[in-house]
Structures are given as C-alpha cells and as structure tokens.
C-alpha cells in the first residue's frame, strides 16, 4: 500500500491461502515541484495498493465535481478509489443529506443510490475528534464505500468502488483502503 501523501508506503502481499497481509517498507517522500514536502503539505492521506495506477484527473473534473486524485487496479479497471473535495464548507450538513448532495455532481453515484439494495450510514470520530460520515452502498452489480468529512474549510469525500464480483473477492483489501482515509489537521 502507498499512503496518498507518499510519506509512508506499505506493500500488499497476497499469500497462497487468499489472505492478505500488509508488509511495511521504508517511508518515501516526494514533492509537487520545487522543494515542496508532500508530508508537510498533505491535507489528507489514504492507502493505495502497490501496483495500482494513478489516473490523471483533468481540470474539467477538478472544476466540476472536485476530483483531486484517482487510482485504479490495472488488472480490474473498474476497481478504484478516488477523492473529491469542495471548498467553502466549515461543517458537515446532516448525514442523510450529504450523500444526496454529493450525488448531484456524480451521475454514477445517483444511479447507484437509486438502484441500491441497501444504503448504510454511520457517524464516526477519530482520535482527534474529527467527525466522519461513513456510507456503504450495495447497488445493482456494484459496491461503494464512501467517507465524508470537513476540515480546513473543505468537504472531503473518499470513494472506494468495485463491481460486485470484485467486491466479493477483494472485500478485505477494499475495506482497508476505505478505512485508511483521514484528513491531516
């Protein structure tokens, strides 16, 4: 796994028994041009499995739905994780309205919610008291895990999506990716 800020990298290794184990590897740091330090400037972090590829996000996507980063499994291209953020949010709206508001700028999410077999939501707080809304959507042929929070006057939404067959095979890894997201406050 690679932490999105690239300040910590872990490798996901599969064993012949179909279980997974995380093996730490040395931390790495990198910057966005100049001498910037990603660890010092990171606003959020999340794990990415070793071998997954980053999809370059266009300026249009950044401007319309706030997509900031996206990674996908090159062997199963529809298995992916991505993060969106929108500026100007000081706190979360009620839990039930946040998911529907996110769907306004994401047609795939609208379709998933409207045809879902179940939508489960809960509130969680991390060790620093940061509030996160956590959603799990079991849709027709697709599964999605979403975490939403507000920090630094921004609303962050982290998505982990997979078609049902891949979800059934890779559920443990996908849940780990989902649970690894956190804001750096």
Overview in brief:
The chain is an alpha+beta fold.
Protein architecture, described:
The protein is of the alpha+beta class. It has a single domain (54-183), classed as Mog1/PsbP, alpha/beta/alpha sandwich (Protein Transport Mog1p, Chain A, 3-Layer(aba) Sandwich). It has five helices and 13 strands. The strands form four sheets. Strands 6-7-8-12-11-10-9 form a seven-stranded antiparallel β-sheet, with helices on both faces. A two-stranded antiparallel sheet has the order 1-5. It has a two-stranded antiparallel ribbon with strand order 2-3. The longest helix is centred in the last third of the chain and has 17 residues, at 164-180. The chain is globular, with a radius of gyration of 16 Å. The two termini are 22 Å apart.
Blueprint of the fold:
Layout: E1 2-3, E2 10-14, E3 20-24, H1 38-41, E4 44-45, E5 47-48, E6 53-54, H2 59-64, E7 67-73, E8 76-87, H3 95-103, H4 107-114, E9 118-125, E10 131-138, E11 142-151, E12 154-163, H5 164-180, E13 182-183
Antiparallel strand pairs: 1-5, 2-3, 4-13, 6-7, 7-8, 8-12, 9-10, 10-11, 11-12
Keywords:
two-stranded antiparallel sheet; 13 strands; disordered N terminus
What's the helix count?
5
- Total separate domains: 1
Q: Look at the helices and sheets and give the structural class.
A: alpha+beta
Look at the structure and name the CATH superfamily: Mog1/PsbP, alpha/beta/alpha sandwich
Distance between the termini: 22 Å
- What proportion strand? 35-45%
Binned, the helix content reads 10-25%
Whole-number mean pLDDT: 80
- How many beta-strand segments? 13
Output the helix-strand order: EEEHEEEHEEHHEEEEHE
Largest sheet: 7 strands, antiparallel
Shape: globular
Q: Could you please say which CATH topology applies here?
A: Protein Transport Mog1p, Chain A
CATH architecture: 3-Layer(aba) Sandwich
Uncertain regions spanning at least 5 consecutive residues: 2-35
Organism: Salix suchowensis
Domain PsbP C-terminal: 42-182
Region (Disordered): 14-38
Protein name: PsbP C-terminal domain-containing protein
């Amino acid at each position: 796994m690679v932490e999105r800020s690239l300040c910590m990298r872990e490798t996901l290794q599969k064993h012949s028994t179909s279980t997974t184990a995380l093996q730490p590897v040395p931390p790495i740091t990198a910057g966005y041009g100049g001498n910037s330090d990603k660890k010092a400037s990171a606003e959020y972090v999340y794990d990415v499995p070793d071998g997954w590829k980053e999809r370059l996000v266009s300026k249009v996507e950044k401007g319309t739905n706030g997509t900031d980063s996206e990674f996908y499994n090159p062997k199963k291209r529809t298995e992916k994780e991505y993060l969106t953020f929108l500026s100007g949010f000081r706190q979360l709206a009620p839990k039930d309205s946040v998911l529907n508001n996110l769907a306004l700028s994401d047609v795939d999410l609208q379709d998933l919610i409207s045809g879902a077999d179940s939508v489960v939501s809960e509130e969680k707080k991390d060790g620093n008291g940061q509030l996160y809304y956590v959603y799990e959507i079991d849709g027709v042929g697709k599964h999605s895990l979403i975490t939403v929070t507000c920090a630094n006057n921004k609303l962050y939404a982290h998505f982990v999506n997979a078609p049902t067959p891949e979800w059934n095979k890779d559920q443990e890894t996908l849940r780990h990716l989902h649970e690894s997201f956190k804001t750096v406050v």
